[in-house]
Amino acid sequence: MAANTNEGTAVLADPQHAETTTHTVLTKLRELIVTGKIAPETRLRAEALADQLEVSRTPVRSALALLSAEGLVSYSVNRGYTVRAVTIRDVFDSIEVRATLEALACRVSMDRGWSTEDLDHLASIVRQARAIVDRGDWSEAIEFEWYQFNWIFHRSIHHATHNMVLRNSIRMTVIYPVFGDVARLCPSVAAHIPQRFRQLSSTPPDHIRGSQLDHERLLDAITRGDSNEAARLMSDHVIATKARLHEIATLR
Predict the structure, then answer these.
(1) Angle in degrees, 0-180, between the axes of helices 206-224 and 116-135, rounded to the nearest 10
(2) What does R_g of the chain's alpha carbons equal in angstroms?
(3) CB within 8 A of 138, min separation 6: which ones?
(4) Angle 88-112/206-224 helices, nearest 10 degrees?
(5) What sign does the dihedral 19-24-28-34 (CA atoms) show?
(6) What is the dihedral sign for C-alpha 154, 211, 102, 220?
(7) Do 209 and 186 touch, CB atoms closer than 8 A?
(8) DSSP 3-state of 114
(9) Half-sphere exposure of residue 187, counting CA atoms within 13 Å on the CB side?
(10) Distance from CA of residue 165 to its chain's centroid?
(11) How far apart, in whole angstroms, are the C-alpha atoms of residue 29 and residue 67?
(12) Phi/psi at 67 (nearest 5 deg)?
């Protein structure tokens, strides 16, 4: 997806970390489940999903097994795979664990050392996301565009660890939407959020501006080689989502 940014013809891409078909299917299915587009208790048949996603059955079966390990679906011999209901407590718990793991990813990536090429790529992602925020407009399409850059920013750090165990552990904590605001798009969370906080604004909301600034500070810490600061910033950055959700969920 092309992004009209201040960098002109910049393109939203993650060429160094291209996903396998299984991971692509996994991301799509996870997003459909956590946004409620596939409802809890729905039976998931590999054949039907393969037709819907226009892929073979093999990556779908692999993705379903991974979703079972993540806890988003359950498996029984008689019923096969079934979507499990995710609660707001599950989301909060996953955010807490993810904060620790993502902070560790910052440390590990910096211990391994960032190549100039990968660091330039990370900086480019931050600049393109900043250009979206600075345009001043906001809509569902723009939100999706910004969250794509957000996802690639985090994934770039995960991949820079060269630690598959850590990357898989982080992936298993993502049981909420990654391409939009969890307060609006995750039914198990939205049910606890007052309507006024689920409405899409016409300008970039404060939590997006804050997240963008966090990314810029993280980039600066990584560039300077300050692993302690990068880890602290990343932990605070992830926990901020839980703090915001908890705050607005208690307002009526």
Answers:
(1) 160
(2) 18
(3) 200, 201, 202, 203, 204, 205, 208
(4) 20
(5) negative
(6) positive
(7) no
(8) coil
(9) 13
(10) 18
(11) 9
(12) -65, -35
Are residues 121 and 223 both part of a single domain? yes
Nearest alpha-carbon partner for 86 in 23, 44, 41, 49: 41
Exposure b/e, 43-53, CB count within 10 A at least 16 = b: ebebeebbeeb
Number of domains in the chain: 2
One domain, residues 236 and 163: yes
Tens-place pLDDT, residues 183-219: 999 999 999 999 999 999 999 999 999 999 999 999 9
- Residue 217: other Cβ atoms inside 10 A: 16
Q: What is the pLDDT of residue 16?
A: 39
Report helix, strand or coil for 82: strand
For every residue of 119-169, DSSP letters joined together read HHHHHHHHHHHHHHHHH----HHHHHHHHHHHHHHHHHHHHHTT-HHHHHH
DSSP secondary structure letter of residue 74: E
How do beta strands 73-76 and 43-44 pair?
Answer: unpaired
Q: The domain containing residue 244 runs over which residues?
A: 87-249
Strand order in the sheet with 80-83: 43-44, 80-83, 73-76
pLDDT digits (tens, 9 = 90+) for 33-68: 999 999 999 999 999 999 999 999 999 999 999 999
What CA–CA distance (Å, rounded) separates 60 from 183? 28
β partners of residue 76: 80
The helix/strand/coil state of 93 is: helix
Q: Do 78 and 115 sit in the same domain of this protein?
A: no
Token pair 């552990």: residue: 169
